[in-house]
Amino acid sequence: MKIGVVGLPNVGKSTLFNAITEAGAESANYPFCTIEPNVGVVDVPDERLDVLGKMYNTQKITPASIEFVDIAGLVAGASHGEGLGNKFLSHIREVDAIVHVVRCFENEKIIHVSGSVDPLRDIEVINLELALSDLEQVTKKLERDAKLVKTGDKTLIQTVEVLQKVKQHLEQGKCVRTLPLTEKEKELLTGFSLLTAKPVIYVANIDENGENALSQRVLDFAKSEGSGCIALCAKIEEELISLPKEERQIFKEELGIKQSGLEKLVSASYDLLGLMSFLTAGEKEVRAWTIKKGTKAPQAAGKIHTDFERGFIRAEIVSYDDLVEAGSFLKAKEKGKVRVEGKEYIMQDGDVVLFRFNV
Fold first, then answer.
1. Is the pTM of this model over 0.90?
2. pLDDT at 357 over 90
3. Looking at the DSSP assignment, which residues form a beta bridge with residue 356?
C-alpha cells in the first residue's frame, strides 16, 4: 500500500512524515522545502505478531508495511504549473490513497502561505487543484474518443458516458470520490488514476492543547464527503519519535496519548481502504499479510505465492484469539478450534492460516 502525504506548504506535512517514518526528510519554515518526494516504508504496528513470535519461538517476524510518500506542498494554480505543480501532481497519481494534512493551529512564527489559518479554505484549494487536473485529463480523453465512439465499441461507449458524467461533476469543482457511481462505472475509470477519485484521510494538525473548533470543522467536512479524518499534533509526534523507544510509552502515558500518529494513520487507512490482515506462523517466520475485506481463501493464499492460489486445496484456520487461548496450534486442534476451509471461505481479520496446495 502506497500513501501520498499532501497539503499546502507549512502545514506540518513533512514534520508529520518524519514522525511516522523516521525518514529524516527536510522540514523548514518556507514553501517548497520538499521538491522530490521523500519515501518512507513503515511497519504496520501489530502486537499479535510478537505474541505469536514467542509462541512459535520464531526466527523472524515480518509485519505488513505501508509506503508513505511526502509530496511537495501544493499551492493555488498547481494544476497550471504553479510551484512546480504539474510535477507534484504526477507523484500523487502513483499512490493508492491520500493523507491530506490540514493546519488547525495558530503560530505567528510559522508563516501560512495565505496569511491566515482557515482549514476549510485550505482543503478547497488543494481539492480544486486536483479537480482541475482531473478535468483537463478527462476533457482530453473525451476529445480523443469522440470519433471512435462511432465504431460501436460497447466498452468505449460506456467509458465515454461515465467520463461525461465525471466531467460535469468536476466542472462544479467537486471531487470524483463524492460522485455516486456503480461498481461497473468505477471499474471503467480504474485506468485513469484520477486524483480526486482516490480515497482521502484528512489529518487535522492541532497544537499541544488538543482538538479545537478548527479541527472539528475538518472532521465535519470529512464526514460530509465520506472520507477519513484523524486529529493529531505533528509537533508532539516529532518529539515522541526523538525519544529512545523504551521512553516513548512513558511519554505517551504522561500526555494521555493512547495511540501514536502512525497507529492512528494505519487504523484509518485500513478502515478507509477496507483492508485487514491474516497471519501465518511457524518456527521460520511469523508474518502479517494485508488483504481486502471479503477476500476468499485461494486469493489470500495467492498473496504468499501464485502457486498457492493455483494449486489451492484447503486452508487450516484458527482465529488468533482461539490460538492464544489454547497456547499452541496443536492444542487448538485438539480443542476443535482449527477449521478446514475450502475455496469459498471468506478470510477474517486475525485468521492464522496454514494453506495446503499442490502444483
1. no
2. yes
3. 314
